[in-house]
Design a protein that fits this description.
616 residues, Serine Threonine Protein Phosphatase 5, Tetratricopeptide repeat, four-stranded antiparallel beta sheet, four-stranded mixed beta sheet, 51% helix, globular, binds zinc ion, S-adenosyl-L-methionine, SET-MYND_domain_protein
Length: 616
């Protein structure tokens, strides 16, 4: 559905009284598919839409070549000795080589793809960006080695690039690696004595020996020169992988009233990081897709390795690309923009379902096999904590999916209260899943309705269950919205308008840090947005989206100050009676939450009567 036709459908449904009276998702989906749109027609419209977008977002040799010509021109200006605009020309060259890499269809010309990285390396060297130069030439050689096997890459090209890499290594004082590379080249030369004279001209054994001597002399002259460890090597610590980590002083408890929550088992000092988690699912916003690696979510800085098939996302390197492509990107490759136009929650659901396949996801949510599986079971599994998704067995992946689906089961309001928008977007998401996974969803109407219902509930669950990853300026003003993240364990932490911990994201990883000393037995809380500086009404209005009345210190105080009724169940005298607060829903008509903040018992009185009491 194009966005215009989606708006038409939404308007039609908003005005439709029959539709408004339907109480279940399935009835609403059925109404949409029988009275408003035809499934097959909607599917064929979406299919042609997907084909168009895939084509547009696909690699394009012509565009790549055009960018390369522009880049070559700027680089040429510099080599011709035009000093005036040297810096500017180099910057332009860099920009266009980068663009060319983005558009370049690797499999149509592996050598050109590598050449673009090699040129980029030369530009970086002239700009004195040596780490970036080393990175680029490594990419060039890696590409030739990985994809160039059947391509008869001339020995001279590999030699040329290797010498460029040796130079970068030398500048960055990685001498040992530089000498290793020279030794490798010497061995290759010895192995292929039949090189043509042309190739011999580029590099000879004598020259290589001279280069090696030169570096060795340099080392002995500067005996105290310490080799800088490459950043990449320092970053790699394969043994400390985790999906989440919780401080031993924290405990996850279950209560019939507030559900799962974190408490302090022992006293925890201020400024302690008590929990870290790599989200189960992250959807990066459009503006950040070329700034963050889509696999490890680190800032890309000088790194730039695009998906080899679409122009939509970028990675640190080939390893990050291959990992994500195999996990789930091959399903969404080229159509991210379509999925995103639905809502980022739809992208989350699309990915989560694609990762284990839509049918398995459906079975996981409906079959009895995992019926007993609980949040506690998930927490007890060490593999869910310590094994990377790419190394998980299918069973482990299914249980992680199950965990995400049971996070909100204790609150069925979420499943029932899906608005028109969720229904329409859910139907669209299901059709795209149908197309991508060849499901033939409409073979059985019952299954189709159930499946779409699952997608709709999933979308709703995500909307209320994600953390926003933001970027701030130095004065703490908002710089940008980076991504939405679903954290399986983080979702268990409850809200308070005066939270005792602050949460933040770094490299796609959330962490909680205490903002004061937390006493033994105290609940650990974060804010879902509202804080004590907002007026009571405004706070409750926002928290109403999550279907609970906040019982934090600030809300309790405000509720006792008149923004609430007194509970008839608890307390001996009037002063001890718990408050039953008013909620302020979207239409600004205050209604009673019905639940006492202290004893949690429900009070049923007509709202109008309550309004009168409140106004007295
Ligand atoms: Zn990465
Ligand atoms: Zn792609
Ligand atoms: Zn509160
Ligand atoms: Zn009470």
């Amino acid at each position: 559905m194009q966005s215009s036709s989606r708006n038409e459908i939404l308007n039609k449904l908003y005005k439709c009284n029959d539709y408004a009276e339907l109480k279940t998702n399935k009835a609403r989906i059925d109404y949409l598919l029988t009275k408003v749109i035809d499934y097959d027609q909607a599917k064929s419209v979406l299919k042609s839409n997907i084909d168009n977008v895939r084509q547009k977002n696909g690699k394009n040799l012509v565009l790549a070549k055009e960018c390369k010509i522009v880049a070559d021109f700027y680089l040429q200006q510099v080599s011709l000795g035009k000093i005036d605009h040297k810096y500017k020309n180099l910057q332009h060259a860099l920009e266009y080589y980068t663009r060319a890499i983005l558009y370049m269809p690797l499999f149509e010309d592996v050598q050109m793809f590598a050449r673009l990285y090699a040129r980029k390396c030369q530009v970086h060297l002239q700009l004195d960006e040596n780490e970036s130069a080393l990175y680029s030439i490594r990419m060039a050689l890696d590409i030739l080695k990985t994809y160039g096997q059947n391509d008869c890459v001339p020995m001279s090209t590999i030699m040329n690039y290797t010498i460029l890499q040796v130079n970068c290594l030398k500048i960055l004082s990685h001498y040992t690696e530089a000498i290793e590379m020279i030794d490798e080249m010497l061995m290759k030369l010895a192995k292929f004595p039949e090189l043509s004279s042309e190739e011999r001209q580029i590099v000879s054994t004598d020259e290589l020996m001279k280069m090696k001597e030169n570096i060795q002399q340099f080392i002995s002259k500067n005996n105290d020169v310490k080799e800088t460890v490459t950043a990449a090597a320092a970053e790699q610590q394969p043994n400390d992988y985790f999906n989440y980590r919780i401080d031993h002083r924290c405990l996850i408890r279950q209560s019939p009233v507030v559900g799962r929550h974190f408490i302090a088992k022992y006293e925890i000092p201020e400024k302690t990081c008590i929990y870290q988690e790599k989200p189960y699912s992250i959807v990066i916003e459009q503006d950040y897709l070329h700034k963050k690696c889509s696999t490890c979510f680190k800032e890309l800085k000088y790194k730039f390795f695009p998906c080899l098939y679409c122009t939509e996302i970028v990675f640190c390197d080939r390893q990050c690309f291959e990992q994500l492509y195999n996990l789930y990107h091959h399903y969404e490759c080229g159509i991210m923009s379509i999925l995103k136009s639905l809502t980022s929650a739809a992208v989350h659901v699309f990915r989560m379902v694609s990762r284990i396949s839509p049918i398995v996801a459906y079975q996981t949510e409906t079959s009895v096999a995992l019926e007993d599986y609980s949040i506690d079971d998930f927490i007890q599994e060490s593999n869910q904590r310590l094994v990377h998704e790419k190394d998980k067995t299918m069973d482990e992946k299914i249980r992680a999916y199950k965990m995400s689906s049971i996070l909100w089961h204790h609150n069925t309001k979420h499943s029932q209260w899906s608005n028109v928008h969720h229904i329409v977007v859910g139907v669209e998401t299901a059709i795209i899943l149908d197309l991508v996974h060849n499901m033939s969803l409409n073979k059985s109407k019952e299954f189709m309705l159930n499946f779409i219902d699952m997608v709709v509930v999933g979308i709703r669950r995500i909307i209320f269950n994600v953390f926003g990853w933001h970027e701030y300026n130095e004065d703490w003003s908002l710089r940008g919205h980076i991504a939405n993240c679903q954290c399986l364990i983080g979702s268990l932490v409850n809200h308070s308008c005066v939270p005792n911990t602050n949460w933040e994201f770094k490299n796609g990883q959330i962490s909680l840090t205490t903002n004061r000393m937390i006493k033994k037995g105290e609940e650990i809380t974060i804010t879902y947005g509202p804080n004590k500086d907002m007026p009571y009404d405004r706070r409750q209005e926002r928290l109403n989206h999550y279907f609970f009345a906040c019982r934090c210190q600030a809300c309790l105080k405000d509720a006792l100050c008149g923004y609430a009724l007194r509970c008839i169940h608890c307390g001996d005298d009037d002063d001890n009676n718990g408050p039953v607060p008013f909620n302020v829903p979207l239409n600004n008509e205050p209604v009673l939450s019905g639940q006492c903040l202290l004893c949690f018992k429900n009070i049923q009185i007509f709202n109008q009567t309550l309004m009168n009491i409140k106004n007295v």
